[in-house]
User: What shape does this take?
Amino acid sequence: MKRISIAVMVLVGSMVMGYLCYYFTGMHPVVCVTLFGTIAVISVAIIGLSRWLSKKWIILWGFLWGGFLIFLFLNPISLFVSMYGSLVAKEKRNMYNPTTYTVVGETLALYCQSYELLRAHGCGTVHSDCVTLHGAWIPKGLDGVGTIQRDGASIGMGGALHDHGLELSLDTKASTAVTNVWKLYYTEGKRESKVNRHLLTIHMDSARQFSTNELLATVVANYDSYALRNPSTHAFQWQNRWGEKIQMYLLFDRITEARTVCREQLVTVPRKWNQWLMLTAALITAEEESFERAEHMMMQWVKEDGNFMSYLVLAYFYQMSDKPSKAAKAIRQATTYDTSPSMGRELYTIAMYVYKSGEYDTVLQICDHASATVANIGNVEKPVFAALHSAVLEAKQNPSNAKPLEWAKSMIPFDPYKDVDIERLLQRPVSRMTVKEWSRLPR
Assistant: This one.
């Protein structure tokens, strides 16, 4: 009777584990049933045979079977599959949640009906037949890349869910002159074997569109929601996407609000991630108050923690304020500190600027510093600085006839404002080489 009770407990436990495996890892139900059913059958068989085995053999079989199960579930491959599956299952449950997909569906439908507004303001990346949205433009609750057209939209989830997504399509047969009927589907699998699951049908007034204020409020709310939803990636946000919220306001010509957001973020972001926010805030101060006040801000910030990066940012401040001599002095100070091996683009960009102003000794100092510290990524970085060094020596021999120096075609310029329209923010031209200008150079 005792063995029967244990066998029943094993069977029930296997059923529970199979369900938990299906729920938390997203494994196919047949796989879960087969795996845990087999484990249950073998376990019950061992329990049944134990009545004819000695205690020694019972312990040995129990030890071997237990060790096998531990290896089966705790080896690195199983753990990886479980973690990957749990991530997929979690995101799928999120997308199957009516609260999530209702908001997503309605937002996508409004995006489609506001297609011309998205194109007019340059929201996301505008193509000839669609608009690609990412980051905060994706409806609240999801991460991925979205494609918007007049008659439909899709969101590809990427990462662990690279073959999962949502698709919205206009039902032209059910729609009327006054009402658009949109259908939202959850899609899974590659294109040739895609499976669609209908989630929602939306009836929307065909004249309904986002107003400019509604669109801006929606995307700003999405940005704030993402930051709260993903605290572990917040550091990445500040380091790589610090200007996204500022650019949102600039797209709609809200200059005052964009400047306010910059100052607000500067207060909340830790210093080690706020260098470009600090630079931006100083440039704004120079426009609204005075250059002297902005310079004082930058000097106080640099003195708090003098290092290569802080003096490099100071040099960029002077460059964008058209103060080449002061930029040269700041970058000379920067080269007295240890430099990350990945700073070749930043050094080359500022070196090209000070070269134009005739600060040849400073350029030589930058080249020497780069040669000693910068990694030769792709066998590109050090030859570029060597060529620059030779050009400077030649220019020093005859400064009055120094030739304009062409930008190295293999060195992409560093532009902290590649994702922020700094000229619109400051309402003036800014001296810098952009990636777009570099890409147009003759090859």
